[in-house]
Amino acid sequence: MLLGDLSRADYAKSLPPVFARLCGKLKNLDLVNLPLGWQDLEEGVRMNVMEFETSPAEDKKAEMHRKFIDIQLLISGEEMIEYGLSEPDLTLFDEYRDEDDYQLTDAIEDKNELILQPNMFAIFLPYEPHKPGNTVSGQNKLLKKLVVKVPVSYL
Ligand code: CU
Hints:
This protein is mainly β. Helix content is 7%, strand content 41%.
């Protein structure tokens, strides 16, 4: 998991080149006015722009991917994301959907939490479970965010 803030002049300094390049493209977009839905960030790299209300973490499952890395960038609002970095026990997950590249679990082992403010991004690598879209300090709020799906072969 990598965490950063596009507002910083030096945000790209310690990022692997592929993430520095893609985050540079994100930084050049008019994020607040981006249309919702799936679109190309560049050829071969898709992103999904979403707007929804945060909800309590307890009500949701966590997701995990194998073939794509997520760059999750918050555009407006605030968002708590739960995640885990210990090696996942696959018996605690449901079946892997190869077509859509995800599987779900009820519980993230050795769970951590992070809070995104606008312009902050979290990068989840394959086999790192994460549960985005959670309420911060007990209040559900509307947020706008995007998720870039980066093929692992880009690493
Ligand atoms: Cu994900």
